[in-house]
Amino acid sequence: TRPIITLLTDAVQRGVLREDTGSWEVPEGLDGLMTGVPTSLQQMIDQHIDQLTLDEQKLLEAASVVGKDFNVAAVAAQLEQPTEMIEGQYAALMRRQQVVQENGVSEWPDGTVATRYTFLHDLYHEMLYARVPAGQRVQWHRRIGLRLEQAYGNVTQKYAGELAMHFLRGHDGQRAASYLYAAGEQARLRHAYHEALSHFSKGIEVLNDLPETCQRLQDELQFQISLGAALIVTKGYADPDAEHAYTQAQKLCRQLDLESTPQHIHVLSRLSGIYDNQGHLRRARELGEQCLSLAQCQQDSTHLRQAHQALGRTLLRCGELTAARFHLEQARRFYDPQDDHKLVSSTPRPHLAVPRLTNHYTLGLLLQLQGYPDQAQHWMDQALLQVRALSHPYSQVAVLLWATRLAYHRREVRLVREYAEASIALATENAFTYWLARGRSYHGWALVIEGETDTGLAQICQSLEELQATGITHIGPADLGLLAEAYERTGQIQEGLCVIAKALERANEMGEQFYKAELYRLKGELLLKQSATEVSEARACFYQALDIAGCQEAKSLELRSAMSLCQLEQNQGNRDQAYKLLSEIYHWFTEGFDTVELQEAHALLEADRTD
What we know:
The protein is mainly α. Among the domains are: about 1-35, no CATH class; about 50-130, Winged helix-like DNA-binding domain superfamily/Winged helix DNA-binding domain (Arc Repressor Mutant, subunit A), CATH 1.10.10.10. About 75% of the residues lie in helices and about 5% in strands. It contains 31 helices and five strands. Strand 1 and strand 2 (about 25) form a beta hairpin. The model is unreliable at about 345-350 (pLDDT under 50). Keywords: ATP-binding, Nucleotide-binding. InterPro entries: TPR-like_helical_dom_sf.
């Protein structure tokens, strides 16, 4: 105990251990406590160890290679001695209260039963480990790994992290890589994605030191795919490191002549999603079409679904709503309930979010744009209902964010705020940086609409900066449109017009057209607020918005543009043509008459009828 007292005394003197109202605290954490251990203490521990017999020292050094907590059977394996023989030596050390203490009994899956011990302090463990010659360490780690592999039998995956550590330090690269991959998968099952990233990244490092064989390349392919998925979850679809991982996977598919295989289809689908989120929609579309072509040759339902979903998502952003709906409905045809099971079971998972839910919420947004609000809400409600039954945070936060997006397009401010707050809480808890930024942008918009203008606008601006930090090179037109509307609401008209100009330029560069009609409508509203003399230009913007929405068959956006035009013409005393147009669009709708905008349109038409 004396070395520990010395350590604590030194920590108090260095200020890393402080008394606060009768209790002790470590402001800098345990790392601060362990940093700068005095030489005198190290010498004291060395002297303490040197007082033991050589056999006892070797016994403790061997134990340090197993870990701070160790099983006597593992030590026996590395020393190549009978377990019974060394049990007594540890018991004697414990009775003298020297270095170790008993920590129960453990039984391995192969039936081996032995006593567990733990070192009295981390310093003993670390200093004993440092005394073991490097070559001896390698040999002992390898022996321990092989014995544990034998002991764990067919449940080695459960102990993959421990086995990976021993084979890594035992210079058995092939086994280390295998268990690093298994450890990464186990971490993903626990939703410990940052831990998974560490395992997958280390595994790729280990593989790169091995000879370039076909097996090594196949192993790296699996690592790159899993690494990319973990990066998308933690950092977002636009993350450059995720793009690099899947680009490497694509190269490996070519190198291994796997270009016509399901693996390559999966990689192309992921790359399509990455480019879609980065705003490179033309590249995303090319890869989506390539993915679909390969999937059709394979006639595999899982990859046909994945390809149709990827292409449908991109076509939606391109403003080709009819084509997007075709692909999303095709994706539904190929849905397999087993895909959901793969996601939440121990099977290595090809999906980030539950496929069924991804389809539900994407289709929901598309149907809203097309003018089918009730059907849109039905699919989103299904997604919200079904995700509650899953213990899968990534799917949950994705559904919440898409529900937020749908509520935003429906102008349901209270729901936008509620869903955004729920998504922010979940994204914060799980360190999902992309979804966190997304949630904050919509939450900021809701605050602006509800009157908390300064707070809301600041939150939107901050969230857009956070989105760029996730790898989105250029903020998309829809996100800029949200910011422009916030500026319009806060009376910052010139700022809003500058953002709209940037958004329209960005829409042409990226090929993102689905929000272009709304951008022109917002531009018209901003021009009207800027000056009463801007009526002609504002009117032209509203007609431009109507033309774009009409070509895209985006009836909801067409309705919104027609309402803006009607309000303008009403103020100008020239409303007949505009109201006729609004009436035609309104009477096209067959559902959703209780939604905000259809009620507003109805009120406008009723006011015109009674005048």
